[in-house]
Specification:
The protein contains 12 helices and no strands. The protein has 283 residues and is mainly α.
């Protein structure tokens, strides 16, 4: 886990160069302030010039340690949103590492590049990992637009809660899109199946309302598979199977009705069932 270098202090308005004289360049740069540190600029130039190897890794680690307090401050902006602050700091540190690896020192100050990179990494973490119910990216974007529109409308004079139509006009969305975005706002948290869904003595849990597996579905599949083979049987054999399994007649009654022996009926039933079973399994 990445940890903050205790020698590196966040820059404040009261920091001065005369308060402390740390030995390492990273701490000196932190005391002077990140954006005006000549040591940090030199480290970035050196990082770009070095080939992959232990020396480049050491410079990279020094830059990450130098800017880690800024990453932690950005992570702190997202506290109290259902994610542990330590996890958020790890995500922000990952964004910082990406910013250090991709930064080109000739294009300006590192801070102006790193802040949106780290913030984007934290927001991406919430977008991709924090949903209890996974929703499409398009619906997630609708949720964000609806949330911003609601907040802005609440700050204006008028009713405390804006209507769907007002949100749609303000966010330039259709009312159907607003409804989808509002439903997605509940996607961050899941409701327990043990929650009481009824009232009074007849209360029941949400899990009690869920249906179970219907074994009849398997029967339908088996019947469809067997129907094709049944149609291929001779008429007399189909008649015998119908009387035996649908009219629940005994083999003796079937033999009496058809004028054949009971043993013959038994052999025809066994042979017909075997043909139907073999044909159905072959499908």
């Amino acid at each position: 886990m990445l940890t903050e270098n205790p020698a590196v202090r966040p820059h404040t308005d009261t920091d001065t160069d005369s308060e402390a004289r740390p030995a390492d360049a990273a701490a000196v740069a932190a005391d002077r302030g990140f954006d005006d540190s000549p040591e940090a600029g030199a480290l970035f130039i050196r990082l770009v010039e070095l080939e992959d190897g232990p020396e480049r890794d050491a410079v990279r680690d020094e830059l990450v340690s130098l800017w880690l307090p800024m990453a932690h401050r950005i992570a702190g902006r997202f506290r109290d949103r259902g994610e542990a602050i330590e996890d958020l700091r790890q995500v922000a540190a990952l964004g910082l590492i990406k910013a250090v690896d991709r930064f080109d020192p000739v294009r300006g100050a590192f801070e102006s590049y790193a802040i949106p990179t780290i913030t984007g990494e934290v927001k991406r973490h919430f977008r991709d990992r924090m949903w209890a119910v996974r929703v499409p990216r398009r619906v997630q974007e609708l949720r964000n637009r609806v949330r911003v529109a609601r907040r802005e409308l609440r700050q204006q004079p008028g009713p405390a809660e804006p209507t769907i139509a007002e949100i749609a006009i303000h966010a330039r969305l259709t009312e159907e899109e607003v409804s989808a975005g509002m439903e997605a706002m509940e996607g961050f948290s899941a409701l327990s199946l043990d929650v009481e869904a009824g009232a009074g003595d007849d209360g029941y849990s949400l899990g009690d309302t869920l249906g179970g597996t219907d074994s009849s579905f398997d029967t339908v599949v088996d019947r469809q598979a067997a129907a094709k083979e049944l149609r291929r049987l001779p008429e007399r054999e189909r008649t015998i199977l119908y009387m035996r399994f649908f009219e629940d007649m005994t083999q003796g009654r079937i033999a009496e009705k058809l004028g054949i022996s009971q043993m013959h009926v038994s052999r025809l039933i066994s042979r017909s069932c075997a043909r139907v079973r073999e044909g159905a399994l072959a499908q």
